[in-house]
Amino acid sequence: MNDQLQDLLKRIYEEGVAKANAEAEKIINEAKAKADELIANATAEAANTIAAAEKQAADMKKNTESDLSMAANHSLNAVKQKITELILSQTLNAKLGATFNDAEFLKKLIYEALTAWKANSASGTITISEAMKPRLDDYYLNSLKVLFDNKLQIDFSPTMKHGFSLAPADGTYKLSFNDEDFANLFKTYLRPRTKELLFGS
Description:
The protein is of the alpha+beta class and about 200 residues long. The chain has helices spanning about 1-100, 105-120, 140-145, 180-200; strands at about 125-130, 150-155, 165-170, 175.
């Protein structure tokens, strides 16, 4: 009887151990499968993160290169523009400054401008640079007044460096004739050609 009980206990023990081993193996297999799934998901997520980071880095590089290229082009164009302006200013300002200091030239320019202006204005004011006053004789100034039937007022301005300006009696507008105005006018036409000569395009 004792032997039978021992056999029964042994069989129960062995079955319990076998069931426990089977359950443990099942749990281990499930854990391995879950771990494999987690590793696969983590690997895929890491790959996606790396791909997204690489794309972002490539986009940033492309944008940075584009921004640098644009900034370089703007800087180069600004330098070309500045050089062109300096050359035009040096050339035109020196020549026009000397020309507007020439009393004979200024007398002719004033007379021609007034003759053309008279067609639209019966009276008005001419303002001449104060520096020219000693170089314009009374006879010449009176001839300008006669041109306008004595309806032309002649003023001299200490603030005007060179040239002169015309304004009708009602003061609705003012025409300016000085070296700076002529320089700006000439620069408008000469700038593209000068830039092309200097830089090829």
